[in-house]
Description:
Blueprint (H helix, E strand, L loop, with lengths): L3 E6 L5 H9 L17 E7 L2 E7 L11 H15 L2 E7 L6 H13 L3 E6 L9 H5 L5 E3 L8 H14 L22 H4 L8 E6 L6 H9 L17 E7 L2 E7 L12 H15 L3 E7 L6 H13 L2 E7 L6 H14 L8 E3 L11 H12 L5 H14 L4 E2 L2 E2 L2 E8 L4 E6 L7 H14 L8 E6 L1 E2 L5 E2 L8
Parallel strand pairs: 1-3, 1-4, 4-5, 5-6, 7-9, 7-10, 10-11, 11-12, 16-17
Antiparallel strand pairs: 2-3, 8-9, 13-14, 15-16, 18-19
Helix pairs in contact: 2-3, 2-8
Amino acid sequence: MRPLIAVVGRPNVGKSTLVNRLAGRKVAIVEDEPGVTRDRLFVDCRLADRDVVLVDTGGLDPSPDDELAQGAVEQAHLAVQEADMILFLCDGKSGVHPMDHKVAAVLRKSGNPFLWLSNKMDPGSNRQELEFHELGLDFITISSSHGSGLDQMSTQIDDILTKAGFPETQGETEEVFLSKPEVESDEKARSYDEPESLRICLLGKPNVGKSSLANKLLGESRQMVSTIAGTTRDAVDLPFEHASKKYLLVDTPGVRRKGRISEKLERYSVVAAFRSMERSHVAIVVLDGSEPFADQDARLLRLVHDRGRALVVAVNKTDLWDSEKRKKYTDQLKHGMRFVRYAPVVYLSALTGKGLGKLLPQVQMVWKNSGVRLGTGELNRLVEQAVERQQPPVIKGRRGKIYYVTQAGVHPPTFIAWVNDPSRFSVSYRRYLDHQFRERFSFKGTALKLVLKARTKNKKGRAKSKKGRRRK
Length: 472
C-alpha cells in the first residue's frame, strides 16, 4: 500500500502550490485568497523512488466560534490519525504564527513521523528563519513556487518512510524485446491470489444505508444506525465469516459532495474513507435507490475505478420501489455507470435483507477476476487476432504497430504493450483492445490497465533493449 502523506498548515502558506509542484501538473487550485481548498484532494506522485499519495488539505482555520488553539489542535489530531506522514508548512516570510506552536506540540506528542517545512523562502525574499529555531524542531527551507529545497525534502521523506517500514516501489517496467513470446500452457499461465481474509470497504454518500448493510452482513447490530447523515465518523474494521470464508468489513464515513464538507471533523472523514479503500481488496459502492443517481455517486465510482480496486455496486432501499421507480432508476444507473460497465450490480434492501445473499458471491467473483494472471503466449495470440480484425488507425501518415504484450501485475490486471509509437493509438482503439480482453477473459468487476511503451532503437535504427541488445 502506498503511504499517505498529508500536507497541512495555516491558510495561504502554499500547500496547494507544493502539491502541484510535486505532482508535476496543476491538480490543485492556487489563489492568494485563503480557504480556496475546501475538499480533500488525493494526488498520486513519485518521490525519491517511491509511489506515494499526497493529500492537499484545507487551511487550519477554525470557525469564528472556536478558540484558535482548540481548532488548531483538533485539526492536527485528525491529520495525524489518518496519514502515514505529515508535511507541515509554515510561511517563512511572515514567521512563526501562534497556531504553528500549537500544531507543532501536537505533532511532537503524537509520535507519528512529520517533516517541518518553512515555505516561501524564495531567493531574495525577506526570511524569518531565526524565529523557527525557537520551536526546537529541525526544519527545511523550501520554495514551492521556485522548487528550491525540494531535493533535500524528498531525501528526508525517503528516510522517514524507510524507518516507518515502507519499502521502495519500482519505477516503470524495463523495456525488453524478445524474438518470440514465451509460450506457456493455459493451465500454468492462469493463477489467482487468495488472501487469508478478504478486506471489503463500504463507500457511499451519507445516509445511504452503509451501516445497516454492515449489520445485516454481520448478523448483529454492531454499527450505530440513524437517519441523521454522518452518524459514522471513523472507518471501522468489522471481521466476520460467511460460508467458511473470512472477511474484514470496513464501514466508512459518508462522503459528501464538494462544497458541503463544512465541519472540520467531516473533512478528514473523507480521508478516512479514501484510506480504507486503499487498504481494501474490494470496494462496495452503496447507492440510495430511493433517490436519483447523483454526480457524487459517479465520483465515487470514478475514484474506485482510478484506484484500480475490484468493484461491486450495491443499490440499497429497493424495498421502496414500484415498477415505475425501478425502471427510472435503472435507466439513470445505466447512464451513470457507463465508464464502469464492467462492475456487477446487486439490488438489495438492507432493511428487509432481500437480495443480500447475492452480494458476497459477487465480491468473491470480482476479487478473483482482479487477480487473474495470463500467459504471455495467450496474451499475444489474443492481440494478434484483435489486430487482424481491426488494425490501429493511421495517425499523421503512420499506423501504430504492436510488437509484444506481457502482463506486469494484478489488482488491477496490468498489461504492457511495446509499440512503435504510443501516440499512434487513439483512445477509441485502446477501448477496442480493452473490449477484446473482456470478451476473451473473465474480467467482470475489475478495471484493466493497458500501458503502451515505445521501443528504443540503436544508431542503425534496429530495435534493442535498454541494455543495448539487438533484437534477433
